[in-house]
Predict the 3D structure of the following.
Amino acid sequence: MNKTLSEKILSRKVGKDVSAGEIIVTDVDYMFAHDASGPLTIDQLRTMGIQKPAYPDKTIIIIDHAVPSPNKTISNNQEKLRKWAIKTGSRFSEAGRGICHQVLAEDYASPGQIILGTDSHTVTAGALAAFGTGMGATDVAVAIGLGKTWLRVPETIMIKLDGDLPTGVYSKDAMLTFIGKLTMEGATYKALEFSGSAINNMRMDERLTLSNMAVEAGAKVGLISSDETTKKYLESRGRGEFFQKIMPDKKAEYTETLKFDASEIEPTIAFPDTVDNIKTVSEAAGTEIQEVFIGSCTNGRIEDLRIAADILKGKKVNPNTKLIVTPASRETLLLAVQDLTLQTLIESGATVTPPGCGVCFGALGGVPADGDRILTTSNRNFKGRTGNPLSGTYLASPATAAVTAIKGEIADPREML
Amino acid sequence: MNMEGKTWPFISTAWKFGDSISTDHISPGRYFHLRTNLPELTKHTLEDAREEYASNVKSGDFVVAGRNFGMGSSREHAAIMIKMSGAGAVVAKSFARIFYRNAINVGLPAIICNTDKIADKDQLSIDLELGKLKNETKGFELTFSPIPKEMMKILSEGGLVPYIKKYGDLKL
């Protein structure tokens, strides 16, 4: 056998051997739509004359993009989704529960599944060896209506990360380094697979950061083999029975293998306006930053908030900048309350907002002023991404974000650890 | 599949864009609240790439771009807005995966070919079936790979919604 992770998962799903390049029609394990694309998804279902999901228990409606709703138009759209979910018996994740990809990781995703969402960062589930991929509203509507979708089995690029990441360097820095090398279109139509000793040693939250940003290189999916870490994570979520071990075959064929030495990776920043516009933090140090955001489906988990809090403890956010913190889910928020992470962040001067997507995609809260630079732990920095095309967006790890908030300019987390 | 009042292939004007036009350029997140009001949303099409596009584009015009057009978000609104703005097709050196799929699904032809020698305002005609693009202004012709046959089935029905209405299933 010579299958990549993608080929393995998709072959099992369709019950026959499939390989890169083949077009398949496959069942879907979970399909979800959120409040940014959900109304269109439901409209498309209605236009197709489909009254209800093929599998309501596999269909999830998630309110996360505008939380809490800032105006009546968005409230009415969210209410439309809420009513549809109740009427059809679909699963429903209310505003405040969390960002869709975090909710999927916590409650749904497990190895071997196929997960479709109306959001490009559905690839996050790849950290659990689930074939998660983002599609548009109409494709997801068809999946909801029929319980299946069509896919082209992707070729795979292997990213191999061996060794140990130095202190102050995180999976976010590694992923930005990978994207800098791949470029933002280097994996278009392809799968990414992550392997190597550094990946094996990563916690689940660190892996979720890697998979989350696979799409920033254009990839369809960003997969990591399931292992003991996956098993323990699922057990901690009360879903241990869904564990299965999935790994690629030893002779799997990759279009390309990119090898990185973890010990050589440095704190890294993506400069405006593309994610592959990479500089090391030492090259970027001193750039004044007017706003720092710690949150998103990329780096808004409890471990991320703890890393930031450890750095900010007993210190103050620089008066020339602002710090906004958004936990990725209600559970993250609650954990951060219980272990006083939140208290530390608030004492340092952070503004904490409810779990959701707002600041990251420029639709709700934290919009920078003209000429401002915003440094965020999220995943995109295209022009206008954070709500103002006259501002610039910089991407970095939570540790870099925390020291930058203290200094008011891009700074190296290794100085404070 | 035809443009309103136009039969392929027709001659129309190119709107030239650069590389890496993201869905944030095409459909800025700050207009999120307009996503259930598509005619209003369409007034902001490609606003962060070329602000003058939405108010000046004519029915049948072609959006012509460089590499990796439509990168970023899965928001189908990006493809819908370009279609509703009146564009007859998007021509680019390459497309982001999700955008390409969305374009076909909403009945917007997405053509992959070398656009280096196409300038803003050039008059183009495109033959989807023969895979030929003619630059009438500069007097040259380019060939392009046809849209994959599975996707052409969807496009020729006008998109995925009419396709499913007709066949009731995915039969690619």
